[in-house]
Amino acid sequence: MLHAAISSPDLAELKDRIREWGRAQGFQQIGFAGIDLGGHEARLLDWLAAGFHGEMDYMARHGLKRSRPAELEPGTLSVISVRMDYLPEPMQDMKETLADPAAAYVSRYAVGRDYHKLMRRRLQRLAATIARYAGPFGYRVYTDSAPVLEKALAENAGLGWIGKHTNLVNREAGSWFFLGEIYTDLPLPPDQPATNHCGQCRACIDVCPTQAIVAPYRLDARRCVSYLTIELKGSIPAALRPGIGNRIYGCDDCQMVCPWNRFARMTEEADFLPRRGLDRGLLLEFFGWDEAEFLRCTEGSAIRRIGHERWLRNLAVAIGNAPPHPDLAEALRRRLDDASPLVREHVAWGLERQTETAPALPTGGDGAVPLQR
């Protein structure tokens, strides 16, 4: 291969050029990691042994390929790790939506266009640029699309550290960003791994609505709202439903309270900005979508992956968690005979909650309950 003759000084220069080319593709940071993930592998195996992955069988399906890059992609010598900011709005706006009893909260990574294709295209372009400079080389790009320990690789590449909530945190940029990788047979020298700066802080642990962070750096995904509303295909455990609140797709609470996110920057990518009102939708509005409307309004969005059935399941739970109101109860009654047993079960649960004796929603000055805008 042509790159086999590249000298160490040339590799150092190549790294500088890759950073430059990566920024031109819209990545905010580019780092380089080796392929030894021994410590992370041990933690992965311990996490799997505890059953914390729940129904995410794919986490164990590929054996050790996830923690051994050269087994996933033979010939891999180094990994180019990148991050791309996606924060679409000020965090205060998100908190207001979350606190609105009429609103349906969607995790902010999913309110815009699905990031997988966008980042994959950018990574392919970056790899093509590298090839024009260094000659043909072996590589493969990943964006949450294969058994890759992306956060471990990013930590080793100096992009940030894995926080107590198990998300990657960067001192200058917080945690509102996506990750992507290029596995390559270029022997690029690794960067210095990031050091941990969580200190004694436990804000993320304390705020988790379902107590899914069972210990610092230890997440029981089976309790996590993101798992329950996205990954879980069946019934949401009844004991965990109240903690979901009005979160209908994912959860951002642990990121909202992280002190390092005061440094987070708004995204520069128009594709990550909210589309079709997914950031400001109402529970009643979304629950009224039939499947055709769901598919139309989530076109190009990561939300599509859960399908209309789980969309209704999640909304039924969120409506059940809202302060009782006749309009919400009536919306649930209209779906009691839904074709899906999964939907019917969660609708019945929500309706029972809606018809319990409880304080009503606050009304506006004209006496109207703010269920619609």
From TrEMBL:
A GO molecular-function annotation: epoxyqueuosine reductase activity
UniProt-annotated location(s): Cytoplasm
CC terms in the record's Gene Ontology section: cytoplasm
Cofactors required: [4Fe-4S] cluster; cob(II)alamin
Amino acids binding [4Fe-4S] cluster 2: 208, 224, 251, 254
InterPro entries assigned to the protein according to its UniProt record, in alphabetical order: 4Fe4S_Fe-S-bd (IPR017896), 4Fe4S_Fe_S_CS (IPR017900), QueG (IPR004453), QueG_DUF1730 (IPR013542)
UniProtKB keywords: 4Fe-4S, Cobalamin, Cobalt, Cytoplasm, Iron, Iron-sulfur, Metal-binding, Oxidoreductase, Queuosine biosynthesis, tRNA processing
Pfam families listed in its UniProt record: Fer4_16 (PF13484), QueG_DUF1730 (PF08331)
Principal cellular location given in the protein's record: cytoplasm
GO biological process, one term: tRNA queuosine(34) biosynthetic process
Residue span, 4Fe-4S ferredoxin-type domain: 189-218
Binding site for tRNA: 233
Active-site residue list: 144
Annotated positions binding [4Fe-4S] cluster 1: 198, 201, 204, 258
Family of the protein in this entry: Belongs to the QueG family.
Described function: Catalyzes the conversion of epoxyqueuosine (oQ) to queuosine (Q), which is a hypermodified base found in the wobble positions of tRNA(Asp), tRNA(Asn), tRNA(His) and tRNA(Tyr).
Protein name as it appears in the record: Epoxyqueuosine reductase
Name of the gene this protein is made from: queG
